[in-house]
Here is the input.
Amino acid sequence: MPTQVSQVDRLVGIDLGGTSIKAGAIARNGQVLEETGADPGFSRGSAAVLDTLAGVGIALGARGKGLGIGVPGLLQRERGFVIDSPNLPGFRNLPIKQELARRLDVDPSRIHVENDANAAALGEQWLGGGRGETDCLLVTLGTGIGGGLILASQLYAGADLAGEVGHVVIHEGGVPCGCGSKGCVEQYASATAARRRALALGLPRSAPGDLKLLCDAARAAEGPERSLLHEIGTDLGRGLGPAVCLLDLRCFVFGGGFSAALDTLEAGVRAGIDERSYGKRGSLIRLLGAKLGPAAGWIGAARLNL
Ligand SMILES: [Zn+2]
Here is the structure.
């Protein structure tokens, strides 16, 4: 007989991304009960996307109960308001909390809206690579670099934007960034940036710009591929240095597609942290891989209901 879990114990979470909706229900003890996905269909307009989100939530048992949702972009988290989201067409000045509450017949206080990287951090700290870590920063290495900060086992978002480590400036006057600044670490150590740097150097020689083959070549032998990944890792470490200085963090958990390269980046990351932290703490820090993959976001969003 499968374990019976009452409706009360089902925590529903949704991760809204630019190309997909991932969602599920999980028990308070961390047992995944159901996992699902949907096409957000942004071309049909934001009202239709909200209908789809509500439909996914209702199918998972959230009607009358509420849910947690992770959303990329600039948010006012408490109000549940999307100010702007470059990856979500039409999601601008959108009161997502109110809109979902109405569709799910719940008080708005039962809809928990969180930044997507923060939601992923909560998921990884609950059941994934950061399990058991009381203080850690989840760093997502993807198109950009996202961050979610866990302090004393709780998400710490500050007024809204704490943990956004991708926009730490590491090279004064460097590469322009989408945030309006120049020289941000995400312009040097995200998957996008790594690909650009590899292409510029014609690496790996077998297929320039292919990050998987770049890592394979770096693992196989000394050479320009290994040097490039060391440089990229060093830049990443330079970006993490301020978090080490300010908070004395000793644990970073890396998720996102480019985190598969962590073994090839690690020595560089430690060198970069050494360079930018008082007391050369690079060797003292644990660099861990995320474990939940694309499920981290919805699992962390579900945890917001706890
Ligand atoms: Zn930036």
User: Anything to note?
Assistant: Residues 235 and 272 are 6 Å apart (CA to CA). Residues 224-247 form the longest helix (24 residues). The chain has a mean pLDDT of 95.
